[in-house]
Design brief:
Blueprint lengths: L1 H26 L4 H8 L4 H12 L8 H14 L21 H9 L6 H17 L5 H20 L5 H31 L3 H15 L9 H26 L13 H34 L4 H7 L29 H20 L1 H9 L2
Helix pairs in contact: 3-7, 4-6, 4-8, 4-10, 6-7, 6-8, 9-10, 10-13, 11-13
């Protein structure tokens, strides 16, 4: 009974402390004090180490789902980065980046932290996929590494505590969903006759529902690239999974040498680069002609959630009044669709034609 009374009396005190002290320190401007505290330790070697750590979860490692969710939340919340927000007598600095890198970071909103989100989701999923029975030591290592990444983002002035917490929650949610539905998705993509139409339909819906930010950011373009790549891989899996991509074959079990592996890597990279450029050029030529045949009202429905960058630079009427334009004067729906198909071609090339080529060549 005494413990019950103590718990009942302590609950209001705990809530008061949380609301008046912890919440502002995490979710309010007071959270930037964490950035300043971390930056008091500023040292060239520490800056280099944190900057290099952040690069380990750069764009090539992002899962399409993680990137879509993270980017959609960024453009939905539109939360500024710490180095863009005045706080106290001094401004939080952006450490460890060149002027060009700082400019690119300033173009995107900060919440949630994509680095924290992807370091958690990708690494947890990798451990789960490679070791289905789980390994507590590896999971603990993932948590430590994700904590290191979170600390690096605070130190570099790129994220506030609320950005990091949001990224961690989103990452854990995504990996939980991925682990739950993974087998069902693979079975559907590799066995259902509706897989390819479903892939294109899902791409259309996801890109159309992406939030529009308060001002232009490159986030939507990044999302388009990875949705296109995920679609290309899915279509490739649907056509050749049973013949060429049986699970369970690891590199160290293959009876070939390093030179054999390097040959496959070089040919695969060359084919992927060629497919991406060919897809981009072909789409850039055909799409403007094709889109002119669509009614203005239909193009307005498809219009990507981006700003009309060309409006400030144009002198005279728009070349195509049906759509907003890029800074270079190209309609955004043409630009986005061309980007989607260029990355679709890249991913499809490495998931279908290239494996078939290796099989035919006996590689």
């Amino acid at each position: 009974m005494a413990l019950d009374r103590l718990a009942t009396q302590s609950l209001p005190v705990a809530l008061w402390v949380a609301l008046h002290h912890l919440a502002p320190a995490v979710f309010g401007l007071e959270g930037l004090a964490w950035n300043k505290a971390a930056q008091r330790l500023e040292h060239p070697w520490l800056t280099y180490l944190f900057d290099a750590s952040s690069a380990t979860v750069s764009v090539p490692f992002y899962m399409a789902l993680s990137l879509y969710v993270g980017n959609a939340l960024k453009d939905l919340v539109c939360g500024p980065r710490p180095f863009q927000t005045p706080f106290g007598a001094t401004q939080v600095k952006c450490l460890g980046s060149t002027h060009e890198e700082a400019r690119k970071n300033a173009q995107e909103y900060g919440m949630p932290s994509s680095h924290v989100l992807n370091s958690i989701s990708f690494n947890f999923y990798a451990v789960h996929y490679l070791l289905r029975n789980g390994d507590p030591i590896l999971y603990a290592a993932v948590m430590l590494w994700s904590g290191w990444i979170a600390l690096s983002r605070l130190y570099l002035g790129l994220h506030a505590p609320v950005d990091i917490i949001a990224g961690a929650v989103a990452g854990l949610t995504i990996v939980g969903c991925a682990v739950t539905v993974d087998d069902y998705v693979i079975d559907f993509v590799t066995a259902s006759p509706w897989a390819v139409p479903a892939v294109f339909g899902a791409s259309l819906v996801l890109l159309r529902l992406h939030p529009r930010p308060l001002q232009y950011t490159p986030t939507y373009e990044f999302t388009t690239s990875f949705v296109g790549a995920a679609s290309g891989i899915s279509v490739g899996m649907a056509s050749c999974w049973a013949d060429l991509m049986a699970p369970g074959i690891l590199i160290h079990t293959l009876p070939f040498g390093t030179l054999w592996l390097l040959r496959r890597v070089v040919v695969g990279l060359a084919a992927a680069a060629a497919a991406k450029e060919a897809g981009k050029k072909l789409a850039g030529v055909l799409l403007p002609i094709l889109y002119r045949g669509f009614p203005v009202t239909l193009r307005a429905c498809w219009q990507p959630p981006v700003a009309d960058l060309g409006a400030k630079l144009r002198k005279g009427p728009a070349p195509d009044p049906a759509a907003a334009h890029t800074a270079g004067g190209r309609p955004w729906d043409v630009e986005i669709t061309a980007r989607y198909f260029s990355y679709f071609a890249l991913a499809w090339m490495v998931s279908d034609p290239v494996p078939r080529l290796f099989q035919w060549a006996g590689w």
